[in-house]
């Protein structure tokens, strides 16, 4: 194979790699924006829940059903957040330890820091 063809193949490979990296970067940015949006919603739900519990306490009314409803909504948002984080970790090829939050290699079975099963 000639030097020129060799250089063309190498350049194509580098461009493909750079393209893939750019795609991953864009995807990661989108996921991080989504996580920030979910965080805002979670904060808003907590705030509203707190206000309603406070109001019920002042007015001596029962808010048990309301609290259950809000807790379910918050659980859904927390699950959505975990799913988004998992996607981020998969793209970054890391696996977060559920015990100590250490970032391990994606294919690790045990945490490198605390030894917990992943
Ligand atoms: Zn750990």
Automatic annotation (TrEMBL):
Which named protein is this? Zinc-ribbon domain-containing protein
UniProt entry keywords in alphabetical sequence: Coiled coil
Task: Give the organism the record lists.
Answer: [Clostridium] cellulosi
| Coiled-coil intervals, chain numbering | 67-94
Kindly indicate whether the keyword Coiled coil belongs to this entry: yes
Top-level taxon of the source organism = Bacteria
């Amino acid at each position: 194979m000639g030097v020129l063809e060799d250089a063309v193949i190498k350049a194509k490979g580098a461009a493909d790699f750079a393209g893939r990296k750019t795609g991953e970067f864009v995807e990661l940015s989108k996921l991080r924006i989504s996580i920030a949006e979910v965080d805002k919603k979670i904060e808003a739900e907590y705030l509203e829940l707190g206000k309603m519990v406070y109001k019920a306490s002042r007015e001596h009314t029962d808010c048990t059903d309301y609290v259950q409803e809000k807790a379910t909504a918050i659980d859904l948002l927390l699950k959505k957040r975990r799913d988004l984080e998992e996607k981020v970790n998969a793209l970054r090829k890391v696996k977060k330890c559920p015990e100590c939050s250490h970032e391990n290699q994606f294919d690790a079975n045990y945490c490198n820091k605390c030894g917990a099963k992943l």
